[in-house]
Amino acid sequence: MKASAFDYARATSVANALELLTAHGERARVLAGGQSLLPAMNLRLIAPELIIDIGELDELRGVAARGGVLTIGALTRHADLQKSPEIAVHAPLLMDAVAHVAHPAIRNRGTIGGSLAQADPASELPACMLALGATIIARGPGGERRIAADEFFAGIYETALTPQELLVAVELPAQPKDSMHYFQEFSRRHGDYAIVGLAAQALVRDGRFADLRLGFFAVGDRPLLARSAGKLLDVAVTPAVLSEVSSALDEELSSLGDQQATPAMRRHLARVLLTRCVSSLLARTDLCAGVSA
Amino acid sequence: MTSVQPIPEALSALDRPNSYIGKTVPRPNLDRLMQGRGLYVSDIELPRMAHVVFVRSPHAHATINGIDVSTARQMPGVIAVVSGRELSTVITPWVGVLSHLKGLKSAPQNAIAIDRACWQGEAVAAVVANSRAQAEDAAERVSVEYQELDAVTDMRAALSPASAVIHASLGDNLAFERNHDAGAVDQAFAESDEVIEAEFIFGRHTGVTLEPRAVVADWNPAEARLTIYQGTQAPHMVQNIAALHLGLKESQVRVVCKDVGGSFGIKVHIYADEMATYALSKLLRRPVKFVADRVESFNTDIHARDHRCKGKIGVKRDGTITAFEIDDLTGIGPYSMYPRTSAIEANQVVNLVGGPYVTRNYRARARVVFQNKNVMCQYRAVGHPIACSVTEGLVDLAAMKIGVDPVEIRRRNLIADDAYPCASPSGLRFEQLSHHAALTKLVRMMDYEALRAEQSSMRARNIHRGIGIASFIEVTNPSAAFYGVGGAKISSQDGVAVRLDAQGSVICQTSITEQGQGSESLTAQIVGSVLGVSMDRVRVILGDTDNTPYGGGTWASRGAGIGGEAALQATKVLRRNILDVAAAILQSTAVELDIVNNAVVTVADGAPRIELSELARIVYFRPDTLPPGIQPELMATRHFVPREYPFAFTNGVQASWLEVDIETGFVKLLKHWVVEDCGTIINPQLVDEQIRGGVVQGLGAALFEKCVYDERGQLTNANMADYLVPMSGEMPDIDVGHVVSPTLESELGAKGAGEAGTAGAAAAVTNAVNDALKPFGTIITEIPLTPQVILTALGRI
Question: Domain named Aldehyde oxidase/xanthine dehydrogenase a/b hammerhead: which ranges (chain B) (predicted)?
Answer without folding.
Answer: 35-150
